[in-house]
Amino acid sequence: MVDISAAPPAPTGTTTDALVELRGVDKHFGALHVLQNIDLTVRRGEVVVIIGPSGSGKSTLCRTINRLETIDSGTIVLDGVPLPAEGRALARLRADVGMVFQSFNLFAHKTVLDNVVLGQVKAKGVKPAKAKEIALALLDRVGVRNQADKLPAQLSGGQQQRVAIARALAMQPKVMLFDEPTSALDPEMINEVLDVMVGLAKDGMTMIVVTHEMGFARRAANRVVFMDGGQIVEESDPETFFTAPKSERARDFLSKIL
Ligand code: ADP
Ligand code: MG
């Protein structure tokens, strides 16, 4: 038996296991300083929940990580490679970042199956038969394989969001970003989506999740990052954050949502 307690401690202050690393990231929208000197490291296999008031910059932060938004200064490094500004290198890196939005953004006129097949064939060059096999396995994993031949509109919101997760996973991303994935759902459908996300977390997926779902944070998050006014105000483990937040701003926010 291997005695892991004898293993050397993981090095700190190095980037060896950092999968996503933001250093000194700044962004403005005109006069609005929407991201202010953001430093954030997400390690391989880590689940980071980002929480904070509306307008604090959470979505913008997510969107910079796959370059849906440019940044004014600072660096974003993905698995050791600085995010390039454009071109094929950007397209390749972007494929490493799966994104799931509040609105499911499925292709409305394609079947559920095709929604999960198409990106694989077009962006990754996977053969259609293989892509279909992968898609069916992923739809099975998120519990909607029996809906494969339907159009998105024939599914419930919770089912559609699970298809969106399967579609993102089909690109074999290194990290998954979720931006308020359950905010548009009826309450009874929230858990079926969160359960899929908890499963992904348990399987070791690296995840950045913007959500106010404390249950999810408690079950799956390694770390909670609290943002306000374009800044990261505090970071801690979920239990500490929800029971004993350090900052006045976090206490004030939690008193409003709890
Ligand atoms: P959150 O996701 O935390 O609610 P956002 O990142 O969506 O916050 O927005 C942060 C701030 O940036 C808000 O004040 C918002 O109005 C503003 N903002 C977001 N996107 C744009 C844009 N494309 N142009 C101008 N302002 C924007
Ligand atoms: Mg948002």
TrEMBL record:
GO terms for molecular function: ATP binding; ATP hydrolysis activity; ATPase-coupled polar amino acid-transporter activity. Its EC number is 7.4.2.1. Keywords: Amino-acid transport, ATP-binding, Cell membrane, Membrane, Nucleotide-binding, Transport. It comes from Cellulomonas xylanilytica. Its main location: membrane. GO terms for cellular component: plasma membrane. It catalyses: a polar amino acid(out) + ATP + H2O = a polar amino acid(in) + ADP + phosphate + H(+). It is a peripheral membrane protein. Residues 20-254 form the ABC transporter domain. It is found in: Cell membrane. This is ABC-type polar-amino-acid transporter. It holds the Pfam family ABC_tran. Belongs to the ABC transporter superfamily.
